[in-house]
Amino acid sequence: MVQRKQADFPLVAAIDLGSNSFHMVLAKVDHGEIRILERLGEKVQLAAGLNDQGELSEEAMQRGIDCLRRFAQLTNGLPDGAVRIVGTNALREARNRAQFMRQVRQIIGHRVDVVSGREEARLIYLGVSHTQADDAGKRLVVDIGGGSTEFIVGERFESILRESLQMGCVSFTRRYFPDGKVTPGRYAQAYTAARLELMQIEQAIQRLGWQEAVGASGTIRTIRQCVQSGGRTQDELTPEGLGWLKRKLFKAGQVDKLDIPGLKPDRKPILPAGLAILEAIVDALGVQVMSHSDGALREGVLYDLLGRHQHEDVRERTLSALMERCHVDLEQAARVESKALSLFGKAAANWNLDDDKHANMLCWAARVHEVGLDIAHSQYHKHGAYLIEHADLAGFSRQEQQALALLVWGHRRNLPSAERLSEMGDEAITLLRLCMLLRLAILYHHIRGNQDMPELQVQAGDDFLEIHFPEGWLDANPLTQADFAQEAQFWAKANYTLTVR
Question: Is the dihedral of CA 382, 385, 389, 392 positive or negative?
Answer without folding.
Answer: positive
